[in-house]
């Protein structure tokens, strides 16, 4: 039986994206091709530390490699929205 071996494929893809290895292993045992498609298509939760460029979880607030503070993706997104202003707003037209 090859299924217990090939079920590792979606599990490893999920693990790379900081998702549950065993969840996708069991998913792979049950519905292998669906598990592979979902594992490939799902959003990657990783990003890179702005200081040391190591791969970290997108929700991390402190880099596990260099121990420096990093803003979470939500905070960065919010800051970018505030900087850019509402849709249609052109930076540099408010006298700054
Ligand atoms: Zn770092």
Please characterize this protein's 3D structure:
This protein is mainly alpha-helical and 96 residues long. It has 2 domains: 1-43, no CATH class; 45-88, no CATH class. It is 47% helix and 6% strand. Strands 1-2 form a two-stranded antiparallel sheet. A hairpin with a 6-residue loop joins strand 1 and strand 2 (55-57). The protein is elongated, with a radius of gyration of 19 Å. The chain starts with a helix and ends in a 12-residue tail after the last helix. Residues 49, 51-52, 54, 63, 65-66, 68 line the site of zinc ion (ZN).
* C-alpha end-to-end distance: 68 Å
Class per helix and strand makeup? mainly alpha
- Poorly predicted segments: none
How many strands appear in the DSSP assignment? 2
Instruction: Give, in spatial order, the strands making up the sheet with the most strands.
Output: 1-2
Largest sheet report:
2 strands, antiparallel
Average pLDDT score? 85
Ligands (ions, cofactors included): zinc ion
**Rg of Cα set:** 19 Å
Q: Helix amount, in percent?
A: 40-55%
Shape: elongated
